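## retry 2 of 3
previous attempt timed out at serialization; input unchanged, resubmitting
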Amino acid sequence: MSTTTIVSAPGKVLAAGGYLVLDQQYPGVVISTSSRFYTVIQTASTANQIVVRSPQFHQAEWKYNVVYDATGIQVNPQEDSVGGKNKFVHLALQHTLNLVAEIHSVAHVQERLSDGLDIAAVGDNDFYSQRAQVSSPGVTVRPVV
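## retry succeeded, writing output
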């Protein structure tokens, strides 16, 4: 059975820290914005595969295989990902799936990923554009979802 889940969260601006915050030893300062991010999660057709895409950007698609072993759940980037490597997406998936396994069980994660997942992440146009540019003639505003 195909399932769709849509979630939304406030956007943020990383004021200090940059990508170093992906390493736990480095802190960062984040400021919330009124613009929002939306994520649409759907079941897919390939077991234990997660495809993450951001349709607002050119070639922004990353594929991951999920492997279950004695150390827990491993998320491995696929070499054929159009967007190359994305450490942020990779680590977000890795930590999220292991947290779900800790709360529920590894078997629960395996069951949920039996058809794989297709994840689309999009942001409000305000997050990426200046209002003057968006309202100028000839600019196409993309729908959020």
